[in-house]
Amino acid sequence: MAYLLENSCHHLHLVVTSRTREGLPLATMAVQGELVEIDSLLLKFDVAESRALLVDQCGLDLTAANVAELEGSTDGWAAALRLASLSLRDHPDPTALIGNLSGRHQAIGEYLASNVLDTLEPDLLDFLLSTCITKQICSGLATTLTDNQRSQRVLEEIEKRDLFLRRTDGEGSWFQYHHLFADYLLHRLERDAQDRIPELHRRAARWFSEHQMLSQAVDHLILAGDAMQAIDAVEQAGPGLNEQSQMHTLIGLAAKLPPQHAAVRPRLQVDLAWANVVLRRLTAVEDALRLAHLGVDSLPTDQAADLRTEMDLIGEVIAAFQDRVDPSAAAATVQACVDRVESLHPWIVCRAADVASFRAIRVFDFDDALRWQRWGHQYHQRISGALTVSYGYCFAAIAANEQLDLAGAEAHLRHAIRIALLPSGRPTYVAKLAGSLLGALLYERDRLDEAETLLDDAYELGAEGGLVEFMLAAFGTGARLKIARGDKTAAENRLAEGLSIARELHLPRLESGLVYEQVRLGAMAGQEISPALAQRVTSPGEQALDGTGDITAEFREDSQIRLLLADEKASAVTAACHRARARRDHVDQRKRPRAHLWASLQLASCLATAGKSDAAEQVLAPALRSCAALRLSRMLIDEGQLLLGLAKDTMEAREFSSDDPGMSDSVREFVLSLTDPSTG
């Protein structure tokens, strides 16, 4: 045949049907454009063709769903469809038969036996039976299962002989049997060599474990009857999976384990608590910690002490996600971790530093927050995963940003994102968290394009969007950006979704911050504030600002001041000025530079609204210097034309003296860029 194909004239057309491609010069003919090859992928029936066979030709009473399910379960294999149609002809419940169709079906099994397996050499049949227990197969795995050092060649031979084996990856390294064929092979193996099956699963588990394919290894250990070894494997992998931000993987692996045995492994339960706390699955965290407490006394004394320290730390992390902080309790827990740094995993120590930074930020001790991250840096070097390290840089950025060290904050966040990117360049979970903060920072500098990409990525995290600081950026600043883009609907939807999450998760600081954004959005648009929103803002009454870290009260006070300004009555505006001044004066400018800057802008707006231009300019002048030096243009733009006009008047009326002789020109250039389109 090969000679005929190579030497005959081009008028000769041949049709060759065969299960093998060997012996014919097909590659040469394909290059010369003289070959049309119709393989199993082209021969497989689609849903329409399956319906034509089963319903139109065979006359079966099947629904469209029946046909689609049958086409899917046979993968369009025409012979299997035909055999199934024979079984369906007199079957009282077609849906049940279709739902249970497999290679164990008698007609399909007999077909495969007589037309395929009975014609094979014993060695090849044994190879097929030994390699059918895994969902996919490669040469290395096949060698482990069969002891055949020529496994790659055998797999390629099976493929060439069209024995229901196809490649599943671009490199051609992995193969997969048609699932009906694999079902039948496994049935034959169970029938003829049941005692071989556990050892085959153990071999597969060993190979998968050696190649860091833990999920498959666990599956085969369980199938081999080695459940305790499967639990050991997951328990040993738990800390590393958490460290590598593979929380979903760990939770999925644990779900495969026999619960009665996994429940008595305190180390595993603590790792599951860590995985779930990051994902905000607090009920699952509580369940895991409860089981860990029940079993911790079974461990050696030092291990038990370490595990109790971790459990206490998880409690503080839960409190942080719930936006609660007990400074003394957090300090005691962190100190317990510091006392055990030699035995605790480095990433646990870093989480302790994060808890310490969170506590410090909430009490406005930003220097201490940065100090803890500097202390934790030595342990960053001993961690391979990005989650905890990136979180640490985020806390450092929050503290730096509050001190108006914007360059430092941006550097921290860009580094956090860089180390958390996937090899493809796509952002991981923690990269999106860091991106929310960087997006907010860039937005304030009017770098909208990059900010929008980062904030949109963070917005996709929804309720799993980390601490309140991250969600305030994703939902609050994200809404401001949409307004800047002219998309009011998107802004309103983002705020509404954020508020829904805030109420669902009981996060009053997030709720009060987003309510403020709603009030600001309505006021800036010149809209009347809805009675429901006004009631929500004013019902708590005037907020007591005592400087203890209750940002919730500050947001509520800001909202009430904004409502008073929107009222436009002289008495309301006077009250707004009084409360804005009190609001500004209670902020320690040395400890909280950013908060003081924002409060100064708010007070200047109130005074300008009241017609007290001189007083407004006096308040605005130092704030304007800071905004100009840091290029915080959106802080002014978002307050509208009143504050922009006041900025221009202030710039023209005052001399901006400074040690830096260029400061006056810098402020002038900055203000003109905001108020004069020709210079923008």
What does this structure look like?
It is a single chain. The chain is mainly alpha-helical and 680 residues long. The chain contains 38 helices and 3 strands.
Provide tags for this entry.
38 helices, 1% strand, 680 residues
Layout of helices and strands, plus pairs?
Layout: H1 2-7, H2 26-31, H3 40-43, H4 47-57, H5 64-74, H6 78-88, H7 94-99, H8 106-115, H9 122-131, E1 137-138, H10 139-146, H11 151-160, E2 165-167, E3 174-177, H12 179-192, H13 197-210, H14 214-223, H15 227-243, H16 247-256, H17 259-262, H18 266-278, H19 282-295, H20 301-321, H21 327-339, H22 346-362, H23 366-380, H24 387-402, H25 406-420, H26 429-444, H27 448-459, H28 468-484, H29 488-504, H30 508-524, H31 531-538, H32 551-567, H33 570-585, H34 593-609, H35 613-630, H36 633-637, H37 641-653, H38 663-675
Antiparallel strand pairs: 1-3, 2-3
Helix pairs in contact: 4-5, 9-10, 10-11, 10-13, 13-14, 14-15, 14-16, 15-16, 15-18, 16-18, 18-19, 18-20, 20-21, 20-22, 21-22, 22-23, 22-24, 23-24, 24-25, 24-26, 25-26, 26-27, 26-28, 27-28, 28-29, 28-30, 29-30, 30-31, 30-32, 32-33, 33-34, 34-35, 35-37, 35-38, 37-38
